[in-house]
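During the no-cost extension, the postdoctoral fellow (Dr. R.K.) reprocessed legacy sequence entries with the updated structure-token encoder. One reprocessed record is reproduced below for audit purposes.
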Amino acid sequence: MIRTRIPPIAADFRQAIYDGEVFIIPANAKTQGIASTLQTLVHSHYAAADALDNVHTYYDPTTLWQNLTAARQDVVTQALARQLITPLITPLFNTGSAFDVLRLRCSVHNGHLNPAAAQSYAAHRDTWFANPQAQINFWLPLTDVTPQQGFRFYRRYFDRAINNNSNAFNYDDFARNVGFQAPTRSPANAHPTNQSIIHGDKGHSFSCNAGDLLIFAAAHLHQPEANATGRTRFSVDFRVIDSQDRANGLGAPNVDNASQGDASIDYLRL
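Re-encoded structure tokens follow.
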């Protein structure tokens, strides 16, 4: 299911993503540069830790969250996004394409047991958050990731509908009242999730090394793993929408997305 080589023609690569293909690109000079820069930045908030994946052993949950919030604020800047992302995506997308800032994610050991985090571990499509069907997601781990620390894809549901509550999501309301990675618990309908049992598909998990690059369609149904490995996982992700593909109606199939608004209005332009 997961490919490791991008097609040589950029349009073919994007179409493969829209068709449901998932890529893991082994770490190279560009991705290692991104990982190194962000590892240093994030690690600066955890001075007592000897490795990023050990930070939970040094901090109580409250301090861990405070430091994570500070690190996220450092990462989510337009300047850093343009510096790190633009050289990576320029060969793959047309001029004028839109891309989001970097988002720092953290999956701590047994974090799924925290009731306030339950929404974050539910199966979902990123398109349910008012993201376009032409959106392509890039996910880069800052620490090595085992199948028990990442997330799983439900490939059978790529072009098959599943019951969900995306109709309750309005991007304008969400951006104004909640916002991504907010430190306070958000309303139940702020994070669209599947509302029925996933049948006939146990999901496909993966492993990758720090600096590898996972690329997939925002329309993929996927679910974070319950991390009980004793290790913390740090990763960053960002999203890209090709301007010409979207104008031409290209993108992954929309089988069940009923969200309202357009999250890409706040994206940067390539």
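The beta strands are 2-3, 22-25, 98-99, 103-107, 135-141, 151-153, 213-217, 222-224, 233-241, 268-269. Residues 19 and 43 are 37 Å apart (CA to CA). The remaining legacy entries will be reprocessed before the final report is submitted.
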